Structures are given as structure tokens and as C-alpha cells.
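Ticket #4471: structure export looks truncated?
Reporter: QA, pipeline team
Priority: medium

Steps to reproduce: submit the single chain below to the structure queue and open the exported record.
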Amino acid sequence: MSGVMVIFKVYPKEGSLQAALDEIREKLSPKDIQEEEIGFGLKAIKVLFTYDSANMSSSQIEDSLKGLDSIDEVEVEQESLL
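Actual output as written to the record:
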């Protein structure tokens, strides 16, 4: 039973950056969320979550992100114990 911090890099569907930001904030309540320039005007979203490993896993959060309508791709960028 320990705290875990995970950062996801989320790629919104084309033209859906603001919708993705709003959807993530409303439905998943992350600790932090930031836009990241990835080149040629494209942006990804970095999303920070913390959770108790006894009650949840990063794969559950990842599945929740992938289930959002405005999200194209999700990858774990960093994960560590708190």
C-alpha cells in the first residue's frame, strides 16, 4: 500500500486539443495537466496522477484515458513511488 505518481503523454485526436483538456479535467481529475509542443504546431498533453497502489493501477488510469472520445493515443512517460 504505497503512493504512486504516474505521468502520461496523451495525444489528442486532430483538432481536439481543447476538448481533450476539458474532458481529462472533468472526468479524471488529474493532479496536474500541461500542454507540450511536439513540433509542426502539434501538441501533446502531459497528465500527472497520484494514486494508492492498493486500490488502483496505472493501467486502469491509462484505460480511462484511452476511453475518452477526444484521445487518440496514450503512453506512460514516467512512473515512480512517492
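Status: closed, not a bug. The export was complete when the record was re-opened. Leaving a note from the reviewer for reference: The chain has two helices and four strands.
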